[in-house]
Amino acid sequence: MAEKLKPPRGFRDFPPEVAILRREVISRVVRVFERYGFDPLDTPSVEYWETLAGKYGEEAESRLIWRFTDPWSGREYALRYDLTVPLARFIAGRPDIGLPFKRYHIGPVWRHEEPQRGRYREFYQCDADIVGSPYPEADAEIINLTVDALRELGFTEFKVKLNDRRLLAGVFEEELGLTDPLRVYRIIDKLDKIGLEGVMRELSKTGLGEPLVGRIAEIISHRGEPLEELSSLCAKHGGNPRVSEACKHLEGTVELLNDTSSVELDMSLVRGLDYYTGPIIEVVLEKPRIGSVAGGGRYDNLVELFTGKHTPATGVSLGIERLIDAGIELGIYSVSRKTVTQVQVIVLDWSLLKHAWATVKTLRDAGINTRIDMARANEDSQRRKARKLEVPLLVYVGAEEVKNNTKTIYDTRTGERKVVPQEELVKTVKEMLAKTP
Amino acid sequence: MAEKLKPPRGFRDFPPEVAILRREVISRVVRVFERYGFDPLDTPSVEYWETLAGKYGEEAESRLIWRFTDPWSGREYALRYDLTVPLARFIAGRPDIGLPFKRYHIGPVWRHEEPQRGRYREFYQCDADIVGSPYPEADAEIINLTVDALRELGFTEFKVKLNDRRLLAGVFEEELGLTDPLRVYRIIDKLDKIGLEGVMRELSKTGLGEPLVGRIAEIISHRGEPLEELSSLCAKHGGNPRVSEACKHLEGTVELLNDTSSVELDMSLVRGLDYYTGPIIEVVLEKPRIGSVAGGGRYDNLVELFTGKHTPATGVSLGIERLIDAGIELGIYSVSRKTVTQVQVIVLDWSLLKHAWATVKTLRDAGINTRIDMARANEDSQRRKARKLEVPLLVYVGAEEVKNNTKTIYDTRTGERKVVPQEELVKTVKEMLAKTP
User: Fold this and answer.
1) Measured between beta carbons, which residues in chain B are less than 8 angstroms from residue A5?
2) Which of A183, B121, B137, B427 stands the most exposed, by the fewest C-beta atoms within 10 Å?
């Protein structure tokens, strides 16, 4: 395809068969979010640059945010990088909103990534957040919602990894005395790719002594049943106030989970964004291995950056792009539904257009999604097009049908053919559509 | 509100009560579009600048398109200005798509407008287009769909103005010999604001002689029942091939309209975008007078700009921002639904959290949108918050309820109060919700 006919690199067109699937996936996510009593909120695609600046961390700040200057006003704008910082800005601007505030937001975000499989420059996030609660039940609600959403989307084999920024800070900074923990986190983050030995090798290269590398390796190997791992961690490092605070909070959270079988504490989970302050989660599918499909955590200081007023918050973001890719790979989803059309009216003789047009109207007025060819094609071509789109029913309008005041209905799925009086058309079409062959 | 807490000028936050209404309006539009057999298509928010350049006309090109240069690649990008040019680019890139192609697309577009009432820098368009049909039935389908959508949205008093670019060209350029018709169109476009006398005065100022101004005034006064106006126009100017072609096409279109009572031919309708080639339409509400709420037309040459291959197309764009504003003003819509939550579980004693949590789960598992307070507030504060959001039902969990294995349900709309055994909770809640007081 000529370059000028493509969307920009890293951006995508979604033709009907993909758009229909995406919409179905999104509507299932909405169903779960609303069942949990989250309300929709929309914020704009564009923010002032200064709204986003200083919230995400170095990489996003310097490289990943799409920012631009308006030549007329000279102001700097940016396309939103996630849905969380705009939420914090919204909350900060509405002191009367009433907390706790539960909202969901589903929409595109933009990142200046190097495009690759599963990584795009425009992609949808499905976020649910609770603002105004410092309690473990808010974090538990977010995890329960995440697990329910994944189940509703058809996934059964996944792991919810759980950790806490305070555990990381308490153990790595305070207990081990690491002065540059961010550098250590970045190496730990590669665990999936390079394995524990690889992580240890890289840690040694940064100049850390062997005993310290050994202790780090031991700590990040804490993964497993959350309450067990927490009690073992707390036994070792519970004297540290941040560790004991985190242990207590996470225990309170885990006790309110509907199902802990898919949840594990994982001390190697670090997550990239700067704004997290407490529990953090990440969901990975057991197969296919396409990386994290959801992530989130507590960010108690983000609203405060705008207002100076402490406002605790926690939330999750589902990445439906990867979930859809994974669902297709697993055979849970297919891009097989090519049209929303339920009936194609086939015109056997174009001098009967007005008669056919009236039939189309009758069907549409009854709520049936109906098409009629717009190119005055011959019967064969009309039928071929309808079958290519897998339209379930064809309704024929020809001289015979007009003369007898009947319609011929053909089910493309079963081969069944019926001739019915005009007045029974809608009823019969509905009955035939209701049968899923 | 401090500047830094606001969305950028001309951009908007939609809090839940507005987002809920917008979603309802959009879902009604989708229902109509799908009934007409249009399928969803999504194209990205960002396009290469050269994709949009040279399609809309001078004003959009020079001032209204949000464009920016990527500092890394040096490439010029733009936020889409409408949904039509991206559609043309998509079609041009898919020679195997199968024509006629019917798609709808609902999403935001961006224009660098000076913000004012009803005019925003980011706003939603709801577009339906048919690509690949040169026939009047395609234009008729678009008009029927537009009228049905407005009805489905609750509007009854509106006018669909109809004209044809070929009528304008045939009469103004060829018959009247206007060498700069665009300048004349721009003056005619002010008719609603300055009246016929104002238009004539401004035309005279451009140096046009009195007889010519008089003939223009006469021509643009052609408005009324479409077939009558067409036959009168054709009688006068039908010798002109463009006029006669347009008359024939429009007559074919009007004959296929389900309801012509709201349609009028209006020779003063010019429309702004460069890409229109045939019939053009615009919908205005009779009241409130908030300008055009839908517009569209035929653009037979747009795809050709990308491919060199002639590909006729026609479509419409509904402006839901103004429709929502108008609907609220008319009292058709209200922003009264503040939450999707159906039940708030009220916790009388926070030591019973786990019991209440289980009740919440029971309700959610039954598909009922349920909340529980996340701030461990006292009963009074929980109730006040729920009533402020107008949550229909409250379900109380207290020592009494736990002891007797019952639940107390309170209907905030009617004041009705019921104590039911736990096992009848879901059934009773569903029954009470089904009653709309």
Assistant:
1) 89, 92-93, 306-307
2) B427
